Amino acid sequence: MTHVTLRPEFEILIDPYAPVGQVGTGFDFTEGPIWHPVHHYLLFSDMPGDVRRRWDAKRGVVEVKRPSNKCNGMTYDAELNLIVCEHATSSLIRERPDGRREVIASHFENQELNSPNDVCVHSNGAIYFSDPWYGRMPVYGVERPRQLGFQGVYRVPSGGGPPKLVVDRHLFDQPNGLCFSPDERLLYVNDTTQALIRVFDVEADGSLSNARVFASGIRSELEPGLPDGMKCDQRGDVWVTAPGGVWVYSPAGELLGKVRVPELVANLAWGGADFRTLYLTATHSVYAIPVKAGPRHEPYMSGRASTGPETGSTPPAAPQLAGGDMQLDPRRCAMIIQDLQNDVIMEGGAFADSGSPAHARQQRVVDNVRRLAEAARARGVIIIHVWFIVEPGAPGVTLNAPLFEGLVDSNAMVRGSWGAAPVSGLEPRAGDFIVEKMRMSAWEGTRLETILKATGRDMIINTGAWTNMSIEHTARTGADKGYFMIVPEDCCSTMNADWHNASINFAMQNVAVVTNADAVIRGLG
In terms of C-beta density within 10 A (0-12 exposed, 13-18 middle, 19 or more buried), how is residue 252 classed? Predict the structure, then answer.
C-alpha cells in the first residue's frame, strides 16, 4: 500500500512505501493504544467487546481485563500508572501497578461527566481529557440520559482535585483526540462532528486561551474516517485519524501527506523499543507501520516505573564512588546540553572572536558531548537541550551585564537564525526535551525543574558552554536546589583554557562531582 505524499516534508516522516503490518484482528472496534516503555507491550481497548487486550512480539494478543467498563483512551503518567477513560462509568481512572484503582474525575459541578474519551498528561503532572457523549450511546458505551448539557475539555491539576473546564462549554460538538506540541505551549483538540482540529495556547497556570481552527474539512464522501485519535511528533507535526487512514499536518497547518490503512482508523500511538513504530487501532484490527519520525516526548516515555511503596523517609543517595569509579542510576539522571549553538562555539558565529571556537576544538567538546549523550540515551537517561534564544531585536534582554550587552550588540542567538541553531551533530533526538532561556543559568525563568520533577530526575550531568558562565551558574544553582551536579570537564568549553581550568579546579569543586565523559559512561553501567 502506497502512502500519499502531498509535500516533500512527508517523506522525512515516513517512507511512502512503508509496509502496513497487521498484528491482530477479529475485534469489534479497537481504540486507546498505548505502549509500555519498560516492558515493551501495546495495550488497546475494544469498547463494544468490553475488553482490554495487550500485544507483544513474543505472546501476541492476550486479554488482560474483562469487563473493562468499555474503556476508551489510555495513557501512562510519569510513574507508569495507567490512566483510563471509561465509558460505562463516565470516569477517568488511575490504575496503579499493585492493582489499586483511583477515580481521578467523574463529575463536573455535581453532575456526571458524559464519558471521558481521550487523555494526555502534561510534564508537570496535570491531566487533560475530552468528554464527548459517545459512551452514553449503544454499542460503544451504556445507553443512558446525559446530565451535562455540553461536551467539554477538562484539566485535573497535578495534585488532584475536581476537573476544571478549560474551553467554552459550547465550542465543541464532540471533542475527541487531544495532544500537546513538543514544547507544551500548544494543545490540539479535534472535533469529530465538526471534522476539524482546534489549537489553544497553554498558559502558565494550565488554562487554555486563544482558540483557533488549526485544520478543517477532515472528511470525505468517498472514504470513511473522521478526526478521532491524534498525536504530535517530535517536530510538532500533527497526526490525526481521517478518511483512508491518518492525515499529517505541519505545525503551520499544511497537509503534508496521508498514511493509508486498509480499515477505518480510530487511534494511534508510537511504540517499539525506539518509538519508531506507529501502532494504529483500526476497527477490527491493529496495525503497525515503521516510521522515521519519533513522538513528542510524553512524560511516561522516560520509563520510570515504580518499584514499591514510597516511604518518603530516606533521602536519595548521592552518586556512589567505589575505588575511584562512579556508580550512577540512569533512572535518576538527566543530561543537560547547554548553549552548544553555532553563535557560541562555531567559526562564523557571533562570538567567534572570543576564542570560543578554538577552545571548543581543543576540548573536543562536540564529539565528547555527542558520545556521552548517545551512551546516556541508551541507558535511559533523559537528554535536555538548553538553548539561549531571543526574538529579533532581543526584547526582554536586560543590559545589566557585559555578556548580555555583547549578545544584543552582536545580534546573536536570534530565533530561527543559523547562530541560534544547535551545532551539527547535537540536534535533538526523539524523546529529548528542549528548554529555552534568556539568562546564563539553565534554571532561571525556564521549565527545567518542571521536567526534572515530572521525570523523577535528581542527578544532573551538566555539559556545554561556557564553563565559567552557563555551566558554573547552572551547577551552583542546582546544588542550592538539592540536585546532585556532575560536570564532565571534557564536555565543557569556554573562551580559553585558563578560564576553563579556573572554574573546573576551584569554583566547580565545591558544588559538583567533577569528572570526565568516560567515567560517566562507566558509571551509568
Answer: exposed
